Amino acid sequence: MSNDCARSRAWVVLAVLSLSGWGAQAQAPAGKPKDSDLVAEFDQAVKVFMDEYRAADEKAREAMLADPVREPRHRFTPLFRAAAERHRGTPEALPYWSWLVDNGSIVDPEIGELAVRRLLADHLADPGLAPAVRAIWRAADRRGVEKTIDDLTRIVDRSPHPEVRAEALYQRARLRQKAGSKEARKDFERAIAEAPTSSAGHRAAEELEALSVLRVGGQAPELAGTTLDGKPVTLAGLRGRVVLVDFWGMWCGPCVAQLPKLKELRRQFKGQAFDLLGVNSDEDAEKLRQFLSANQIDWTQLLDQSTTGPISRRWRISAWPASFLIDPKGVIRGVNLDFDALATQIAGLLRKP
To answer: What's the pLDDT at 8?
Structure first.
């Protein structure tokens, strides 16, 4: 496997780990766990794995991700598939198929596709399908965006439940929004119309509001917080400089994985009118202090202390990491750019008078 492929695989592994909120028992479960215990067994397995991952150096982290004995999904995928097949055609199968879309697809893409087919064949009329819809959305980068949009459209067209249709519309809108499609707004509006008081309806309303604010070319909202040392920092106080705002957390695998790239950006533009501003969502400030020191992270960190903290809420953050490139006038010039594009954009903004 090439280094680029290995890095790509590692990124996907960590993305799914963080999205599912897992945590890990590094050894295999003793015996064969009951179906009802599988999710808890897996969550515990990932918790230990992620604790070890955060404590390891960069080289050791890569080795951990490539080790199918230590990386928990490889051990649990056969167990979840067996449980899904045992309960096939019943509502009890839903969480197992959903897990396989999220995780089994990393171990074997064919297992992920099988899980999606089972969900669409056996559970379209199920009122509890919404979590599976979210799993299908999370797998879009691996499965293909167009294929995923087609599957979500099938759910929109055939589910008899407004809450499920609203979830599918909301997730389809997010994919279309990322692709720059004007149809995204219509999907958000339809999700609200389908089930205005549902979770998806509320999130769609927030997204519509954010579309008019958190967009490239729009003025960035104010951002204010305090550092670990209690120092107040505001985005307005950095006016006149190029600022990259990075929402992250130690709990988030992809956030930790991108730290070396952020260090390189900071090194590349050292001494210029560029600032890197972290917004951290971890609850334990002392553990954060230790982690920053151990990993030589010296840029400013504001404490949000939760994924629902005041800064994250105001900036409508729903997935981590999230980043916003702000120009010296406070205008958003990029959202979640890859690092090559970021470096190019930052250099261009710094050259402007």
So the answer is: 40
